[in-house]
Amino acid sequence: MFFSILTTLVLGSLIGVVTSISVYGFISLVKYLTNFFRNPERSFNSLNDFLTNTPEFVIFILILPFIAGLIVGFIRKYASDSRWHGPPDVILAAHSEKNPLDIKSGFLTSFSSILSISAGGSVGQYGPLVHFGATIGAEINDLFRNKASYEILIGAGVASAISAGFGAPLAGLIFAREVILRHQSLASFAPILVASVVSYLFTKNIFGMNPIFEGSVGEINSLYDFPFFIIAGIVCGFVSIIYMNGLTHSKYFPNISFINPVLQPAIAGLICGIMSIFLPEVIGLGTGAIQSMILGNVEFIYAIYFLIFKLLLTIICLRMGLIGGVFAPALFLGASVGVILGFIFQNLSPTLDLNLLTVASMSAFASCVIGGPVANMMIILELTSDYQATLVAGVSIVFASLISYKVIGQSVFDKVLLNKNIDLKVGRENIKLQQIPVSEISHKDYCSLQPNFTVEQSINTMIKSKKSESYLVDNNEKLLNKFELHQLLGEKNKKKKILQLHTSKFLKLYSETNIFESIEKSKDFVGESIPIVSKQNKIYGVISEGDLFQIFLKITKEEKELENKD
Q1: What confidence score (pLDDT) does residue 214 get?
Q2: Exposure pattern of 393-410 as b/e (b: 16+ CB <10 Å)?
């Protein structure tokens, strides 16, 4: 017992410290490079000012973002994996042993996202941080094999990253369990909480990092204002659907396959540079603009500009290969919606606190995108220490989530995984079953018949093998037919070649078919075994209903043990 507690404290603390250092390094480097790329001293007030100024403007506003995007493109092309990594990979790793995280992809994703953000890409930093935090947890698990659950240490890394980035340790704990692990086992609580708290304390006291906003933002002046928070949630829900579909659905984005993949992020960087000339607030993380919107310092027309161009620019950046998260843009878009609605509602309700409406909208929008309603509420509570802000945020979150969930699912991460045929709605047990090909549980214990066999020879072969079913296979292992013993016994001409018998319809499964699909396809199956074949119809082996049932019970038992483990 004592050793178990000590192990929990040590591993949780270690993950918290390492992740805190990593988050601080990441954020500090982003700030430094952002200032280098977009120094306020090189700012300009008009297009004419830009065109008539020194070449320095052209270099830093156009050429460097292009080069940064080009570097990202080369990393994508020559790395082992040509895509960006983020929370969907973490969720999948936590649900399936077939998809482990590796530190190389964590470093490459983090480095690429630093370049993408610094060059002005309209992407977030928390997605890469969550992924890198998870890889830290995975690496520490490898160092201390069998000392704790793999998925729990992944969750600890995620919680640490959220805690360090937002200054919200409880939100980190809830996010890891609500969004990543999606279970509430007692075994996961202690190490994740320890990691989150240690990361928060280390970040705050050693590095002195402050959250993106903090302090009270407003107050509820009338109960009659609550319908406006409900409307805000509904509007955010619908707008978030547009945002998430733009990021994940092919029909909402033009086909750019004709553009060299190396050049795609470079072009996105160039677009961001051009956009910075006209509307600099929408490029990069947009933290300053978010703070201005919360404080009510943004005009109505600019809020509309923010919403439209931030939405388009984020979709362009992520679809064209710049690497980063979706959370920071979601905060920006939600705040824009809140400001727009505030201007509309202010004449309808003089008591409505517009700053509070902006925060509620921001939280509701972000909740739809990442699928963590409780975590988002906890972020508001920890950053503001304001129960009123948390309450109205919760109201908006509920209605926004109801709408987005019906259309998209739980989050944009769910949508990304669904595009890979991984449906998180089916539950943890079934997700693991989706990751196991049926070929892994197949076996060679079946009766094989040759084309030159007669009916009589086939019957004798089946009796000798003690099988009631047999498979006709040619010299190339190609499956030709399936026979049942009673079928052959009923054949009058026992000297007849079995190749001449009627070809029957029977269930067969491809070797790459997963266990979950196999169970679905075999629910009406009656018989001894099901053949497993390749795409070329070569027999790989067979399985029985008992084999499927056994693996299902095994996975279910493992999940129940995890849920009940203390």
Answers
A1: 62
A2: bbbbbbbbbebbbeebbb
The CATH T-level fold of domain 223-426 is: Clc chloride channel (1.10.3080)
- Quick check: 44 pLDDT over 60? no
What ranges do the domains of the chain cover?
48-207, 223-426, 432-555
Cα–Cα dist 282/313, whole Å? 8
**Pair of tokens at residue 544:** 């029985």
Query: Three-state SS across 158-171?
Result: HHHHHHHHHCCHHH
Report pLDDT digits (tens) over 283-296.
988 888 998 998 88
Average pLDDT score over residue span 95-117: 84
> What are the C-alpha distances in Å from 130 to residues 160, 207, 489?
9, 19, 64
Pull the structure tokens for residue 481. Answer: 């037919």
Are the CB atoms for 395 and 230 separated by under 8 Å?
yes
> Which of 287, 66, 55, 319 lies closest to 165, judged by CA?
287
Mean pLDDT of 354-360: 92
Long-range interactions of 543-548: CB distance < 8 A, separation 24+:
543/438, 543/441, 543/442, 543/443, 543/509, 543/518, 547/441, 547/442, 547/443, 548/441, 548/515, 548/518, 548/519, 548/522
Asked whether 235 and 295 are in contact (CB, 8 A), the reply is no
Name which residue leads in pLDDT, 503 or 518: 518
pLDDT of residue 39: 62
Given a cut of 80, whether residue 68 has pLDDT beyond it is yes
Whether 273 and 62 have beta carbons less than 8 Å apart is answered as: yes
CATH 3.10.580.10 fits 432-555, yes or no: yes
pLDDT at 216: 63
Looking at residue 303, what is its pLDDT? Answer: 95
Cα–Cα distance, 411 to 216 (Å, whole number): 28
